[in-house]
Amino acid sequence: MASMLSHAFRNIPINSPWAVKLSTRSLSTTSDLRTAVQVKIPKARVNQKLNNVVLVEGVRTPFLMSGTTYANMMPHDLARASLQGLLRRTNIPKSAVDYIVYGTVIQEVKTSNIAREAALGAGFSDKTPSHTVTMACISSNQAMTTAFSLIASGQCDTVVAGGVEFMSDVPIRHSRKMRKTLLSLNRAKTVGQRLSLIGKIRPDYFAPELPAVAEFSSNEVMGHSADRLAAAFGISRVEQDEYALRSHILAKKAETEGLLKDVIPLKVPGNQTVMKDNGIRPSSMEMMSKLKPAFVKPHGTITAANASFLTDGASAVLLMSEEKALSMGYKPIAYLRDFVYVSQDPKDQLLLGPAYAIPKVLEKAGLSLDDIAAFELHEAFAAQILSNLKAMDSDWFAQNYMGRKSKVGVPPLDKLNCWGGSLSLGHPFGATGCRLVTTAAHRLIKNGGQYALVAACAAGGQGHGMIVETYPQ
């Protein structure tokens, strides 16, 4: 339409009285319109008040080692189960949920926006917006803080955040050569063109591209990074095995005492109902010492016993504005307070996110280590968490890498991951963050204390830290 008008105007003689009159009228009308628009534009209402964001409840499916009971399911099945479990636990009407956001890392290509597919599968209205985020092992952390921002800013009152990972069935691609050939075949118009393309296929075209827990920037798998980190901080194999054994013992104790209240049962089609995690396996130092290095052979210190295992699972939390939660009769379990994200060198400091995030989030909140009653730190490897603790306890590291005059200090061990951690409970990459926050809230309720601190590292040399405050009981 615009080009037609332009063509018509170009064909009007410029000395035509009608053209002059039209031009003059157009200019004056444009000026009048601009003046009118400037006068009539109303000022947008600005919400100066940030809403308090509360955690009403959090749930998760049992975390299972990949290749076990969930093996024949799909990732959105687990995400849907976490949504349905949250609905049952809270009795929140689906219509009351304004938004849904999930985190995941290795995406199933058929359900790239897994939040949307899980929401529809769980019976939410097709009018409920849903989107998916990815930030490696802190993907559900990012989902929660995205929800936090939506609520705090007043854009939403009620948001479900969660995460899912399914390592039993990850996408395996054809080689790039084969992909290009197949795409060209799809565009070929004649039999001759197709035969010509097929004739170019060579045996190496059939070599698949397997996913790996490796850094794109350094091409180094995370286990190698953990081994180098352990060597840099002088952490022995014995120290790592002792810490890993502690994680399993504490997780088993918490499970036995019924403290892992976020776990919901999941009926697996054609199979049994899964009631609990299957990776909690307290062993002995003697048994653990017999395992061979998994990455740096033969002298590495990372083994299958002191590293988190590939895990299937999903989690979900119900976040609301405090005002909305109370108006609907809910008793929140915690406030979500300050949070930070950090990034550092993805090669030499890949897994040191907590060491950088913890002091930053404490300073932002005006708190000290002594103010924290419960610490929930992600355990990718025993070497990783012990390296973070040593970094936080080093004046040299603080001065040379963190721009601080002195060390941060370390959390007391009796406040750290007291109900087990990722080494024992499992680590579905996209789902761990919600577990950490929910566990922190339940630990405050169980053992007392006002504040908890959640922190995690992630691929790419990134990290997250958050303050959780118990809700007045």
TrEMBL record:
EC main group: transferase
Thiolase N-terminal domain ranges (all copies): 53-323
GO MF term list: acetyl-CoA C-acyltransferase activity; acetyl-CoA C-myristoyltransferase activity
Catalytic activity annotation: butanoyl-CoA + acetyl-CoA = 3-oxohexanoyl-CoA + CoA; an acyl-CoA + acetyl-CoA = a 3-oxoacyl-CoA + CoA; decanoyl-CoA + acetyl-CoA = 3-oxododecanoyl-CoA + CoA; octanoyl-CoA + acetyl-CoA = 3-oxodecanoyl-CoA + CoA
Primary location class: endoplasmic reticulum
Start and end residues of each Thiolase C-terminal domain: 330-469
The protein's Enzyme Commission number: 2.3.1.155, 2.3.1.16
Localisation per UniProt entry: Endoplasmic reticulum; Mitochondrion inner membrane; Mitochondrion outer membrane
Biological processes per GO annotation: fatty acid beta-oxidation
Annotated Pfam families: Thiolase_C, Thiolase_N
UniProt keyword list: Acetylation, Acyltransferase, Endoplasmic reticulum, Fatty acid metabolism, Lipid metabolism, Membrane, Mitochondrion, Mitochondrion inner membrane, Mitochondrion outer membrane, Transferase, Transit peptide
Pathway linked to the protein: Lipid metabolism; fatty acid beta-oxidation
Family matches, as Gene3D superfamilies: 3.40.47.10
InterPro entries noted in UniProt: Thiolase, Thiolase-like, Thiolase_acyl_enz_int_AS, Thiolase_AS, Thiolase_C, Thiolase_CS, Thiolase_N
GO CC annotations on file: endoplasmic reticulum; mitochondrial fatty acid beta-oxidation multienzyme complex; mitochondrial inner membrane; mitochondrial outer membrane
Family (UniProt): Belongs to the thiolase-like superfamily. Thiolase family.
Function field: Mitochondrial trifunctional enzyme catalyzes the last three of the four reactions of the mitochondrial beta-oxidation pathway. The mitochondrial beta-oxidation pathway is the major energy-producing process in tissues and is performed through four consecutive reactions breaking down fatty acids into acetyl-CoA. Among the enzymes involved in this pathway, the trifunctional enzyme exhibits specificity for long-chain fatty acids.
Quaternary structure, from the entry: Heterotetramer of 2 alpha/HADHA and 2 beta/HADHB subunits; forms the mitochondrial trifunctional enzyme. Also purified as higher order heterooligomers including a 4 alpha/HADHA and 4 beta/HADHB heterooligomer which physiological significance remains unclear. The mitochondrial trifunctional enzyme interacts with MTLN. Interacts with RSAD2/viperin.
Xref: NCBIfam families: AcCoA-C-Actrans (TIGR01930)
Name recorded for this polypeptide: Trifunctional enzyme subunit beta, mitochondrial
Annotated organism of origin: Callorhinchus milii (Ghost shark)
